[in-house]
Amino acid sequence: MTTRQVGRDLDTSRPHSARMYDYFLGGKDHFEIDKEAALVAAQAHPGIYMTARENRAFMHRATRVLAQEHGIRQWLDIGTGIPTEPNLHQVAQSLVPEARVVYADNDPLVLKYAERLMRSTKQGRTAYIEADVTDADALMTAVEASEVLDFDQPIALSLNALMHFITDPHDPYAVVRRLLDPLPVGSALAMNHCTPDFDPETWNKVAEVYTKSGSPVQFRSHGDVRRFFDGLDLIDPGIVCCHRWRPDGSRTDGTEPTDAQISLLAGVGIKR
Fold it and tell me: N or C: which end of the chain has fewer CB within 10 A?
């Protein structure tokens, strides 16, 4: 069963990070203004296409690990972006058909395409809500109102390539705590986050491109990313560059990117 909530009209006057990400993944659900901004970012760092792919691959692996090794059957995926197959619920429901997933994003273009790839198995449920993570109270109210997730059972909070768009004035650590607080013991946080640690010059240029395009970013160090997991038990291998988090041997080209090329830290923590 799939449900959705209708939101505001599309804003095509400026680039949007979700649509730029769609371009990096080779999708078609973006506008010329998004492509132009993405190309400027790619000039600053040509490897950003690989970063986008590794972000996606981490989401797949983390979902499988949580389903198979930690018994997770529910996910709240915030900043989901434009649906790209396989989406999170498809990965989860391929392993546990009864899996339930709520997606949330603040771009109505995501809503426009939500029905395309968010079709659930008969045993499970999916829903999409339009909400802004910086208003965590309103977001969680909408999630609870969807009646898809059972807050008495563990829920995995998925925050992939999202929190670097939440700058310090929005108190990103408080946002994550607000999202985690109502989740029961056994729930999880799976997230990745851009970092300047491996190549500060390049990633400072990328940050400047996004900020000038109207999507301010704040890339953070390993220590600052670790703070998002305070109070959680990190599972092996801890917080590492995302292509090194539980690699599954799916890379077939015989090459491995460097940490500087990817510059995306990833981790999964369990709430005890």
Answer: C
CB-facing half-sphere around the CA of 104: CA atoms within 13 A: 25
Buried/exposed 166-201: b ≥16 CB within 10 Å, e otherwise: beeebebeebbebbbeebeeebbbbbbbbbbbbbee
Backbone φ and ψ of 186, nearest 5°: 95, -10
- Helices 88-95 and 48-69 cross at an angle (nearest 10°) of 30
Instruction: Determine the length of the chain.
Output: 272
Residues 6+ away with beta carbon under 8 Å from 53:
25
The C-alpha atoms of residue 207 and residue 217 are separated, in whole angstroms, by: 6
pLDDT, tens digit (0-9, with 9 covering 90-100), for 73-122: 999 999 887 777 788 999 999 999 999 999 998 877 777 776 665 677 88
Cα gap 49→264, rounded to integer Å: 12
- Least Cα distance to 71 among 105, 89, 96, 93 occurs for 96
Q: Give backbone dihedrals phi and psi of 121, rounded to 5 degrees, phi first.
A: -65, 165
Q: How many CB atoms lie within 10 A of CB 217?
A: 20
Report d(CA 95, CA 197) in Å as an integer: 35
